[in-house]
Amino acid sequence: MAEAAEQDLLLAAAFVSDAQYNRNIPFRTSPEAVRLYHLYNHWMMRTATYFFIFLNLSLALFEEPAVYPLPFLATSVLEVLCLLVFLGRLTHFAKVTLHNVFWKDAKNICIMGAILLSLTDLGIYGVLRLYGVRSIRWSRFMRPIFLINFAESRQIRRALRSIRNTLPEITYVFLLFMFSLLMFSLMALKLFGERNLQTAEGLPYFKNYLEIVFDLYVLVTTANSPDVMMPAFDFSSWYALFFIAFVIVNTYIFMSLFLAVVYNNYKKHLKNEIRKLAYMKRRKMIEAFNLLKEEEGEQFVVREARWKQLVKLVAPDTSNSHRELLLRISDDEQKGFVDKKSFVQLADLLNIQVVTLKIRRHPLARWAPALYGSAPSRLLRGLVRHRAFVWTFDAIILINAVFIALDEDSISYAEWVFLALYVIEILLKVYTYEPREFFGKTQFWNWFDTLIIFAALTATILNATLQSTMRYNSQQILDIVFILRVLRLIRIVDSIQRFQVIMNTLINIVPTMLTFGGLTLVVYCVFAIIGMEAFHGKIQYFPANSNAPHALECGNPALKDSLFARGKYCKNNFNNFASSFIVLMELTVVNQWHVFANGFANVTGQPAKLYFIAFHIVMVIIIVNIFVSFILEAFFVEYSLEKSEVETAIEQKIQELGMGVQEDELQHEQLLDNMESAEHELEGDGGAKAQSKGLVFKIASKRYRTVDALLQRMFEAEIPLEDEGLSFEEILNLSPSSAIPRSPSSESAA
Amino acid sequence: MAEAAEQDLLLAAAFVSDAQYNRNIPFRTSPEAVRLYHLYNHWMMRTATYFFIFLNLSLALFEEPAVYPLPFLATSVLEVLCLLVFLGRLTHFAKVTLHNVFWKDAKNICIMGAILLSLTDLGIYGVLRLYGVRSIRWSRFMRPIFLINFAESRQIRRALRSIRNTLPEITYVFLLFMFSLLMFSLMALKLFGERNLQTAEGLPYFKNYLEIVFDLYVLVTTANSPDVMMPAFDFSSWYALFFIAFVIVNTYIFMSLFLAVVYNNYKKHLKNEIRKLAYMKRRKMIEAFNLLKEEEGEQFVVREARWKQLVKLVAPDTSNSHRELLLRISDDEQKGFVDKKSFVQLADLLNIQVVTLKIRRHPLARWAPALYGSAPSRLLRGLVRHRAFVWTFDAIILINAVFIALDEDSISYAEWVFLALYVIEILLKVYTYEPREFFGKTQFWNWFDTLIIFAALTATILNATLQSTMRYNSQQILDIVFILRVLRLIRIVDSIQRFQVIMNTLINIVPTMLTFGGLTLVVYCVFAIIGMEAFHGKIQYFPANSNAPHALECGNPALKDSLFARGKYCKNNFNNFASSFIVLMELTVVNQWHVFANGFANVTGQPAKLYFIAFHIVMVIIIVNIFVSFILEAFFVEYSLEKSEVETAIEQKIQELGMGVQEDELQHEQLLDNMESAEHELEGDGGAKAQSKGLVFKIASKRYRTVDALLQRMFEAEIPLEDEGLSFEEILNLSPSSAIPRSPSSESAA
To answer: Which Pfam families does the record associate with it (chains A, B) (predicted)?
Structure first.
């Protein structure tokens, strides 16, 4: 019986933890499976998986063509190791989930297929290599599959699903755009083809239909404006009208239309996904409630003891006092149990970062109370807390900026003075404020300051030592010192309130931006591997003073007189993984991409252009537009959302218990001031506030919330409590594009 | 008494007409002023005003430096004429509006100032010219003021207000962006300044701080990527990281942030403006109601006769049957009067284009009924109505496209065949469908087809005549023929349903796009005039075979070896108004703008770059972003809005009266089919439908609705009928950024 209760608790903990982290894995409910499931979700297991995924991806750096060559044996052993880890993780997952769900999920099949194909390819390549035959390592394209398909990469998969859902509509707009492009090209052929005009390079102008289509496609990206127009414009000014019409229709209208279509679909899709997640969460919390519920009067409830056991299991790191606070919020009237409505909130409660501020006296006040409390010490602390202290250091930063811009020696005398000033500033602040608070989790700028200053100090000292002992300036260290010196100036931004708001938005966007980093990584990896297969070694870079044959033509006579060689672009090649990434980055920026396309087409034949066009369509038209959509949406959500209901409830409770500080006092200087006055009060009477045992709580700053969490809140309000939602099966099978039927349709209003 | 009633009617008509066209001019209510006000709003007066505004703007084409030189006397007489017209229009306006309102309005003061200054400047310039002294015509900058400030240009003023409201927020983001730019430049100076690197042109690389700032600003616009990176990248691959970080932070994040800020403010501002307009409209309708109301039982109403007089005055063009329909909708129960609620709808009712479809027999059926009704004729009409007829002609268009791409002679034999086929197609359609319907107002594609085909036919015949009689090919005519031939192919787009939807969105966007055309015109005019003053004559274009001195350096030795001269950009200069516009267009497209900036800076000194940076900030960062915001918003509104309440009411009524066709039958082929069957029915019994007197109504197609109208509907639903709104004064004084207090706050929900 006790064991059954224990198992129920474990199962309930799994549900709550899933709800808290928005996982949607339908796991088996057998006791062993639940234990394995807890292990599966352990942060160390997850970190290890990511480590091996990135190890697997970065193998391309060491395989031929390598940036840092390793013997084939070493890379293949590493690859086999990675694949075994993936297989192990997948087996673990299979043991945890329901059988039919596991085999119905395309993700798992995909991973298995990729592992199998990779091993096969590795085997074939290895054997052929033994016999001295070179073949293509085609399975390398498949490596991003692991990044996409492991359950941890939910965000990347969501972005990909969003792209897939947008594709049909994008395709129609794209076809219309292509039609317009082909029409304009036809007009261009008719208007300019028979004029015998020449481009600035002396080549025939607008003679060949396919070349015109390519040139005008490049004009849509604006990369060859105004060059492509000049010959016709020189011939007659009226022809400029053709190009103006072209740019308005294709660059301005169609490209905006692409953004509009992508954004519209992204928003629609995001809403549905998030709504699905909110349903899932509610459903899981109700499952957990049903496992633990006991009858109490007319309703089912979860008793206090049981509830505490559950919270301990789900969040072992929370302090007793924090747990007590959560209980006081959930069991408002101290009846000794938590009802369904309050229980369902638990996942959200756990997600809200409630920071426990221990009201502690400064360590010096404990160790040397007489000294710390003396008049000069009090005066000093008063000075540091004064606004003028901040202003003084802002002024010092500005003067420092001028010195950086002016100084001619690499490390000047003034530099030491500024470093010393900054170190003194930090020491003074630590002297005044409580050190553990000063380096609290949410004190971004304090951490930033301290790290930058001490890194700069270390590097400067290291460099000075090297210079005085070995008479040698390390270029790497100097570069780092330069960058650190300039980075210090960023601090001034945080002194201005208006800039803080913008910075907060930017900081909030970072976590989800990593999703797009992942997406970009996937696309780059695939294109880089294709690029290396197609263009490897065709273009070589020679240093400026080289006298190798064709050094000026990037080692390839086919590039003679090309814009590629004339622009000195030889180092932009696909000769290794790192170079390929840099080329792809330059192609993402778009400018001069036609020079690259023409350059590589000269070397390997005209179809090479298709590679560059494909990259432009995938990366710029789709992914960059999704990125912009995401930034727009994040920005609007930031502007439109205020505090959530649950947060307000927690704050109220904290205030009721007299253990709170207002969020609007959260500016760190003020907060710390406030804390000290609270401390005095406690020292004074120790009466009404004795219960707080030297603690105050506060909701962690709004500054570091993710857009995802904000969006989820928007939809949770829509789901009525009594609506137990659909079953897991139904939710999982929901097509992402269909709204959930029972929810109040807010689609039309939005 | 009768005269007073007459005056009330006239005044009410002015109110209703204002409400219908969303004018918000507080006019005087004296009988004479109301008559003058009707005259002021007459379409001929408005068209004349616009004509003179554009005449005034286009004077720059004829003044020195002129595209088409006219004697100074001619242009100055024209200018004085324009100014007199503006003065007349303003006087007319002053006579119409309230005295204090007129003098408080900045618009009017602006216009008067501009007229005065222009006359003064013209006088001074004329006198100085007589004495042979050249001076600057500085008043030319002021000409766009007339375009902005005349009451007709509400949309342009609204866009400008929107920009003004966005400026504070944009400024903060811009300052942060500038800070980031300056920081990166400082790092670049430290990292690369002492390496003694050289650019591809052999110039020193990243030596001078201001030059670095400019180069990195250009990199934000992507125009010098990857050239600006190559020297550092060639030196060490690691330096690529600096540029990647720079592009991510500044190009991707900050530029998206600009778009987000502009879009967010644009949306907020637009909502408030439109809400204000909706209030205005309601208010005016209530004023009109109060003028005409009579007591009836317990409520005030407007009697039928009075109502009809009013509608006749406001919309003299509507047919009797249309008026009868509107009355039946407003006076639902045929009580002989219209109550307040229905009366207030009148402005919207008048705005809905109800097309009166006269069910007429085909003229041939009347003139030669035997022939038209004969079996072969019926078969022919059946064939033309069949889907296969459309498909056949789609196939012909595709074949034509291939012929156009292939043919070598300028006008080939095949061309005549295709032209003949198209003409036959049109004739067959006119034979089958009723001609007046076929060329109905909303039959966009029929008009398009017919115009294109007949223009092509005319031009081809003209060219053939010229060729056979004078053995001379006119290049202009040939060019037009080429373009017309290709434009014919567009028709194929309309055959595919999915493309139609996108085309409709695009067509709906056109009217408001004209606003941005206006805005762009204003910015271009100002910058073109400044550009001509600063750079006129500094750069000359010489044809390729010219042997003028410095022909290759655009006539200016300072451009030797510059990218400007090497790119053969000499024709991009500010030597006349038209050239300046083309240069500004190229700068709007952004690519290579730094080459222009450097070229002109070489010729006239480094401060010239400021002109180009200012243009980039104004045009690209602000106006293009507003344009994109507008397209995004238009697209979303198109997707989210369905039929309005009023429209639904009208349609219901039309259906009730049995005089309607469903909107979903509006596809023109189907519609016409449907009409014919209705015709047969009428011929058959003439019973139930006899009342329709051969008429059916339909709501004009949704295809041609403006975004403005759609948005306005969104907000009208929010205003309760009983809320008479604020007084005129209050509405006029509303700050555009404050929401109207009494409206239900839907801001947070949106």
So the answer is: Ion_trans (PF00520)
Among candidate residues B396, B366, B365, the one with its CA nearest the CA of residue B381: B365
- Are A585 and B247 a contacting pair at CB < 8 A? yes
**Cα-flanking dihedrals φ and ψ of residue A711, to 5°?**
-65, -40
How many whole angstroms separate alpha carbon A196 and alpha carbon B544? 13
Q: What is the pLDDT of residue B664?
A: 39
Q: Give SS3 for A58.
A: helix
Residues of chain A with pLDDT under 50: 661-694, 703-704, 734-750
Residues 498-537 of B with CB under 8 A from A: 498-499, 502-503, 505-506, 509
**Cβ B483–A191 below 8 Å, yes or no?**
yes
Q: Is the peptide bond before B720 cis (omega within 30 degrees of 0)?
A: no
**Which long-range CB contacts under 8 A does A451-459 form with residues at least 24 apart?**
A452/A484, A452/A487, A452/A488, A453/A419, A453/A422, A453/A423, A453/A426, A453/A488, A455/A480, A455/A484, A456/A419, A456/A481, A456/A484, A456/A485, A456/A488, A457/A419, A457/A423, A459/A484
CB contact under 8 A, A190 and B567: no
Residues of B in contact with A406 (CB under 8 A): none
Q: How many CB atoms lie within 10 A of CB B729?
A: 10
Q: Which of residues 146-185 of A touch B (CB under 8 A)?
A: 172-173, 175-176, 179, 183
In this prediction, the answer to ipTM > 0.90 reads: no
Mutation choice for B interface testing from A252, A489, A562 by most B CBs within 10 A: A252
Please write the tens of the pLDDT for every residue from B642-692.
555 566 666 676 776 666 544 434 444 444 444 444 444 333 333 333 334
Q: How far apart are the first and last CA of chain A?
A: 51
Lowest-pLDDT range of B96-105, B194-203, B640-649:
B640-649
pLDDT at B644: 56
Return the pLDDT at B102: 87
Helix (H) or strand (E) holding B389: helix B387-406
The band of B746, judged by pLDDT with boundaries at 50, 70 and 90, is very low
Cα–Cα distance for residue pair A533/A555, rounded to 1 Å: 18
Tell me which residue in A229, A489, A639 faces B264 most closely, judged by beta carbons: A639
Interchain pair A749, B749: CB under 8 A: yes
Q: How confident is the model over B58-75, as pLDDT tens digits?
A: 998 898 888 888 898 999
pLDDT tops 80 at residue B749: no
Strand, helix or coil for residue A156: helix
Contact with chain B for residue A247, Cβ under 8 A: yes
Encoding tokens for residue A218?
């490049």
- Token look-up 């100036």 returns A489
Listing from the earlier edge strand, what are the strands of the sheet with B294-296?
A: B294-296, B299-303, B337-339
Q: How distant, in Å, are the alpha carbons of A394, A679, B634, B705, B712 from that of B639?
A: 50, 58, 9, 13, 15
pLDDT given at position A123: 92
Asked if B619 and B588 count as a contact pair (C-beta separation under 8 A), the reply is yes
Q: Burial level of B380, CB count in 10 A (0-12/13-18/19+)? A: middle
Which residues of A fall within a CB distance of 8 Å from B253?
Answer: 506, 509, 631
Phi then psi for residue B489, to 5 deg, are -65, -20
Q: From the CB of residue B367, how many other CB atoms can be counted at a distance below 10 Å?
A: 10
**How far, in whole angstroms, is CA B521 from its chain's centroid?**
12
Cβ of B248 under 8 Å from any chain A Cβ? no
Most confidently modeled of B251-260, B330-339, B712-721?
B251-260
Residues of B in contact with A579 (CB under 8 A): 237
Tokens at B649, concatenated: 């009411």
A137: nearest Cα among A521, A527, A533, A608: A533
> Environment class of residue A298 by beta-carbon count within 10 Å: exposed (0-12), middle (13-18) or buried (19+)?
exposed
